[in-house]
Design brief:
The complex is a heterodimer of chains A (69) and B (371).
Chain A (H helix, E strand, L loop, with lengths): L2 E4 L7 H12 L4 E5 L2 H13 L3 E6 L4 E6 L1
Parallel strand pairs in A: 1-2
Antiparallel strand pairs in A: 2-4, 3-4
Helix pairs in contact in A: 1-2
Chain B lengths: L1 H9 L1 H20 L10 H11 L13 H16 L6 E2 L3 H18 L3 H9 L4 H21 L8 E2 L2 H4 L1 H15 L23 H18 L3 H11 L3 H19 L17 H18 L3 H9 L3 H19 L8 E3 L2 E3 L5 H20 L5
Antiparallel strand pairs in B: 1-2, 3-4
Helix pairs in contact in B: 1-2, 2-10, 2-12, 3-15, 4-9, 4-10, 4-14, 5-13, 5-15, 5-16, 6-7, 6-12, 7-11, 7-13, 10-14, 11-12, 13-16, 14-15
The chains are: A alpha+beta (69), B mainly alpha (371).
């Protein structure tokens, strides 16, 4: 069961902070839900910097990022 | 194609390009008529708009600045072109309004937004160092709150019409500017005949520059507050590379155009009251950090459908009205009959800045999600 981080509707840097907290907990995979392209890019950049692989899925009105290590 | 462009704009070169473009265009606007060291200043220009509408009656700072209109509409065009226009609202709007008011009071105590602080520095105004230090200090306090769970809650998707309100307001302002509406001698609109408000680059040039910057900044998420915040919060230098590009390019452009004059006293539309330059921008920086964006970024967000950012912008415009009506804004240094007079803010301004800091700290402490 993947860990879920619901960052929809939160403005930056909140999605990044939540994603980083989840990464620090170290339970992978992590699914991060975001609504804006800005949040998608920011979370992706931060996760990659933390050494994660990031898979992005476009769900129409939102994006699901799956982080694995 | 669209996805490739999106990737370029999201890259480090994308943000550097945005900073460099602003670095050239802002000093150029000054060269073409905008006030000195004020090629672009989001806070000052919103203050001028407040003045033109009669929300304050400081006769030297009244003009509907086309750059602001361009910033919002340029961001709207970019967001539509790349399918990012998204109407959203509902994340503690009243708090954002209050933050907008105090952000403006702080910025006007210093006499500039973060963009102008950088432009002042690249024009040789050393007072900007105090302002920028204050800005960084305020943002650092904001980061402390962010780390301990501060946030203003979620925004929600809403009717598309909600997202169109700020772009529509800007179109309305443009029409007022073009047709120079005035019911009678004593009614708005007001346009300065002397002082900074009377100095302006040609309307069309200002508007086009605004649109170009709005477009680029929406694509690259250029944000001065975010630049400093990301470095402090997580050592991320992505955004700040845009800021670096702005500083380097604006410095070279100012040198080339003969707009560089180094010193503290008597800098254009600036005062050398160091403590209040520092504290004014500390207040502004804290308010920006709590609201999630510098004044420029809030305009770009408002352009892409973010109603909460729109409320922050309206807060800043109201804040400008309050600031001048209550004589809170900084007064520039002057030479009167050969005697140098250091400007600065009135005792009322000092109280307002301290009150603003107290209010922002209260917001930071009380709006933390403990989970």
């Amino acid at each position: 069961m993947a860990k879920q981080v619901d960052a929809r509707g939160l403005s930056c840097p909140q999605p990044v902070i939540l994603a980083r907290n989840a990464i620090e907990e170290g339970q992978f995979p992590i699914e991060v839900l975001v609504e804006t392209v800005t949040s998608r890019e920011n979370v992706k950049r931060a996760a990659e910097k933390a050494g994660c692989q990031v898979q992005v899925e476009d769900l129409g009105a939102e994006f699901k990022l799956t982080l694995t290590k | 194609m669209s996805e490739r462009l999106t990737r370029f704009f999201a890259s480090r070169w994308g943000i550097i390009l945005a900073g460099a473009v602003i670095g050239v265009l802002a000093p150029l606007l000054q060269y073409l008529g905008n006030p000195p060291n004020m090629g672009i200043c989001v806070a000052c220009f919103e203050r001028d708009i407040a003045g033109a509408l009669g929300l304050h009656r400081a006769a030297v700072v009244q003009y509907i600045r086309p750059e602001i209109i361009g910033f919002v509409l340029g961001a709207t065009v970019a967001a539509l072109a790349f399918r990012e226009f998204k109407a959203r609202a509902g994340s503690a709007p009243i708090v954002r309004f209050i933050l907008g008011i105090f952000a403006m009071i702080g910025a006007l105590a210093f006499l500039g937004c973060p963009w102008r602080a950088l432009l002042r520095l690249t024009g040789g105004d050393l007072n900007a160092i105090l302002g920028l230090a204050g800005l960084a200090g305020g943002i650092a306090v904001g980061v402390m709150f962010l780390r301990s769970g501060y946030n203003l809650g979620r925004s929600y998707k809403t009717y598309p019409a909600v997202g169109w309100i700020m772009p529509a307001v800007m179109v309305g302002l443009l029409l007022l500017l073009v047709f120079r509406v005035k019911a009678n001698e004593t009614s708005a609109l007001f346009f300065s005949e002397t002082g900074p408000g009377s100095m302006a680059a040609p309307l069309l040039v200002s508007l086009i520059v605004g649109l170009v910057i709005g477009f680029l900044a929406q694509r690259t998420r250029f944000c001065t507050m975010g630049s400093i915040r990301d470095v402090i919060l997580m050592g991320d230098t992505h955004l700040i590379s845009g800021l670096g590009a702005l500083v380097v390019v604006a410095f070279v452009t100012n040198l080339t155009l003969g707009q560089f004059k180094v010193g503290f006293f008597g800098q254009p539309v600036a005062h050398s009251q160091h403590l209040w330059n520092f504290l004014g921008m500390a207040l502004a920086g804290l308010a920006f950090a709590l609201a999630g964006g510098c004044p420029g970024r809030q305009l770009f967000l408002a352009g892409e459908g973010d109603g909460d950012a729109g409320v922050f912008v309206l807060g800043m415009i109201v804040g400008a009205g309050l600031s001048h009506n209550f004589a809170l804004a900084g007064k520039p240094d002057a030479v009167v009959e050969g005697v140098q007079q250091i400007g600065g803010i009135s005792p009322y301004g000092m109280v307002a800045v301290l009150l603003g800091l107290a209010v922002c700290l209260a917001i930071g402490f009380t709006m933390r999600d403990k989970n």
